[in-house]
Prior knowledge:
By secondary structure, the chain is mainly beta. The chain has a single domain (19-122), classed as Lipocalin (Beta Barrel). It is 11% helix and 54% strand. The chain contains one helix and eight strands. It has one helix at residues 2-15; strands at 28-36, 39-47, 51-56, 59-69, 72-77, 89-97, 100-107, 114-122. The longest helix has 14 residues, at 2-15.
Amino acid sequence: MRIVFIAHLFFLASCFQPERKCEDFKKGTFTYEAMVGTEVLTTTFVRNDSIEIDYFKGKADTSSIRWINDCEYVVKKLHPKNMAEEKAIHMKILTTNNNQYTFEYNIVGEKQKLRGTAVKVAD
């Protein structure tokens, strides 16, 4: 009996899928905080279906967005100022929860992936 219970418990746990309502985050105004050295820096960005405008330290920067599917997209700066900014970034929404989502990102072609959380502050 105990083995049946444990097997059933593992079956239920394996069926759990994190919430991913990615469509809710294709458009809107978002904030993202990152620790840089000893300082927490905040970026605000406004995204519609194909354009994202980032506001950081009083400057705006515009990027194009190409959606791969509902939860993944590629961001590329429209007016890069150096070679590093010319590289596209692959973004993948991993989970959503109320007004925030957790994402994973990497420079296209590179293996190192980083994670972050963005908060939707306006539609």
